[in-house]
Amino acid sequence: MATDVKILAIDEQDIILSSIRKALTSCGDVMYSITTVPTAMEGLRSIRNSSFDLVLVDAALPGMNTSETLRRIRTTSPSTALILMSGYISGTSIPGEISGYVDAILSKPFTTDEITSLVSRILVERRGKER
Prior knowledge:
Layout (H helix, E strand, L loop, with lengths): L2 E8 L3 H10 L2 E2 L2 E8 L2 H10 L4 E5 L7 H11 L4 E6 L9 H4 L4 E4 L4 H19 L1
Parallel strand pairs: 1-3, 1-4, 4-5, 5-6
Antiparallel strand pairs: 2-3
């Protein structure tokens, strides 16, 4: 039986959004339903209007700083898994000002294997915490 996972990807670069969509079309028994938006404000609007299992958000969105974007996402949807995508923050160390908001960091550029593996791991961890 296939599981449908709703993912929101927020990044101003079309190439990144396209890469995410292509990488996460489906993996085994998991079907990903992917919504993409280019700005933090559109992402927050999407989160208010729909529920998502996971949000991938770029660390350098114009118009709103990273901490504020993450805080608003977490406040609006506290049970949603949150992955920060960054070209300048390492995936092994999460800076203190954002550590309470994100589940993981995905370093850019990323490969298909890196994103699928990380998304799968975070979703499994989240399901384990919910039980």
